Amino acid sequence: MFSDAGTKTSSRYLILRKDVLEKIRPIIQVRNLVKKYGDITAVKGISFEVSRGDIFGILGPNGAGKTTTLEIIETILPKTSGEVIIDGLDIDLYSTQIKKIIGIQLQSPDFLPNLNLQELISLFSDIFNTQVNIKKLLKKVNLWNKAKSTVNELSSGQKQRFSVALALVGEPQIVFLDEPTTGLDPQARHNLWDLILELKSQGKTIVMTTHYMDEAETLCDQIAIMDAGKILEINTAQGFIEKLLAKGFTRAQPKFGATLEDVFLDMTGKKLRD
Amino acid sequence: MFEINFFRQLKGFFLAFLKMQLRAGPTMFLGFIFPIILIVTFGYYSINDNQNLSFGLVTDSSFDNVEIFQRELKNSGISLKLDSKKELENQLQTGKIDAILELTQKNQVRLSIGNDNNNKNTTIQRLIQGIIHKLTVEANDLFIPYELRTQTIPVNLRQRYIDFSVPGLIGFSLLSSAITSTTFSFLALRNSNILKQIFAAPTSSVAFVLGQALAKAVFIFSQSLGLLALAFAFFKYIPKNGLESLWQILILMILGLIVFLGLGYMLAGLFKNQEALSPIANIVVFSQLLLAGTLFPTTNLPYWLQRVAQALPLYNFNSAFRYLSLEGLNLWSQAVLVQLSILIGWGLLFYLVAVQVFRIRKTFLNN
User: Fold this and answer.
1) What SS3 string covers A217-255?
2) Which three-class secondary structure state does DSSP give residue A174?
3) How far away is chain B from the Cα of A121, in angstroms, using its nearest Cα?
4) Which end of chain B, C or N, has fewer beta carbons within 10 A?
5) Which of B17, B56, B54 lies closest to B212 in space, CA to CA?
6) pLDDT tens-digit map of A11-65
């Protein structure tokens, strides 16, 4: 696409520009996204961008449209109108290409029955046509000792972690996590946070939804607060807090320098339980 | 970026579904145990009440009371076939009729029976003696000395009930397994997030459906082989020409399975939920168990119902199977080809409808 037309210098200039462009272009661009289910409009014309390598959090109460938004970007749900571009590819035209570069953890995942974890991962590596080191992958999510178990034999925390492992089989550039820590105990939650931060350190982009503010505060580079199908504001955690404080907000002073969760983790340890 | 490999996906789904099938209890039970129960039950069952007897009748005008004999035989529930003596003897030898009654010489009744089943032949002899006795008493004004001459004819391959029922049961097991495994597993997948998970990945829907169908086919086919082996081990069931018939039967079984899987996919596409599908699937499976000559010959049915039965795909499968196994015909003989073409016609229809329905309901895979 960048032909040799022009001088040597200009062509070098163009290659450089393309390189820079790739880096600075948002990996996800959503414009005026609308989703209607019959008469109900679940997503009412939202727009946002996610930068490459960021952890992008969508926060909101139940029914805000978080999962719908995510599933449209994941190419699972068709949209009603608007534009979604993933890594420069329009979702309407290149859904198969997009599926190859994304990994998905569904909010309530189901897996083919009667297959063990190893076999499920191997099936997904067949689908993505990748070579997966099953042992390494399962160790990463602390499930190697469960490799021969079926999903039904897993606790909810283990199931969530396995679901994340499956999302990584295709060596995705973008990982979507839909309420990954809902229903997990503090140990499992912190373990998953570590995993998410590790993925970020590998240069992957992460888009996640959550109900937990501390989670968003700890993990997310950018946070979109969503309610009733609309994005109210996008900012960093720090930015949100400073803005609120600037309005003169004061919070009742915390009584102690630690939280009950700190106590809990101190007593029960950070080691993962199953 | 990596490229998607269709055949690797196909292999992946094929192996995954094969493992799932092997580990799933209910399908094993439905597909395998039920036909076994039927084979065992009906293997020990044999037809020997005169309700099902059929006689060949050879008459001549020199015999006075042909009509009376015919009436009495019909009153005893025996179906009569009129034909030449030679043809009837041939039919007796191959077990299509149970006896030949010759009313050709004045006051002489000649009975030919097979040399195989003593119980049944005693019943037949008693029956004829009873009729002669009755006629003699009725005609008391004129004493007619009927003379009964009985002759036994060596029978080559006497059809046992197991020889009749095994083809039907194999057909039924193919049909019921094909339908339950396609329809209900599709619904189960659709009603959970499994399809969502699979199709959020770059999965080829052809690889998914084909891999699944192949796994089911392998599984169901080996089930039926097990049934055949069981019938051989316990009931000495052997097709007429042995191995020569067997490989043709196996080809027929594969064809039948493909057709029945098509029926399953069609139903899975036509009906959205279990509530609608269950009764329909049951009707399709069990009506054919009863009507399609699976356990009972259709010749006992009223004529109009026979015509209906003969149009059912399982009937065509069963009759083709019986032509091969009982009569030792080849796949390419005319009688078999007629049944095969009807069966293939059904198959084409099923897959055409299934593809159309899936096209309309494409959402079921993408949503």
Assistant:
1) HHHCCEEEEEECCEEEEEECHHHHHHHHHHCCCCCCCCC
2) strand
3) 10
4) N
5) B17
6) 555 566 666 767 778 999 999 999 999 889 999 999 999 999 999 999 988 889 9
pLDDT digits (tens, 9 = 90+) for B183-240: 777 777 776 788 888 888 888 877 887 888 888 888 888 888 888 888 888 777 787 7
pTM of the predicted model over 0.90: no
CA distance B149 to B151: 7
- Give the number of other Cβ atoms within 10 Å of residue B300's Cβ: 12
Instruction: Choose the closest CB to B23 out of A114, A129, A166.
Output: A114
Give chain B positions within 8 Å (CB) of A112: 16, 20, 194, 198
Disruptive mutation site among A92, A106, A114, A132 for chain B (greatest number of B CBs within 10 Å): A114
The answer to whether A106 and B196 have CB atoms below 8 angstroms apart is yes
Q: What residues of A are in contact with residue B19 (Cβ under 8 Å)?
A: 114-115, 119
> Residue B243: enclosing H or E segment and its boundaries?
helix B243-270
Our separate counts of H helices and E strands in chain B read 16, 5
SS3 at position A116: strand
Q: Where are the beta strands (DSSP E) in chain B?
A: 54-59, 79-82, 99-105, 108-114, 147-153
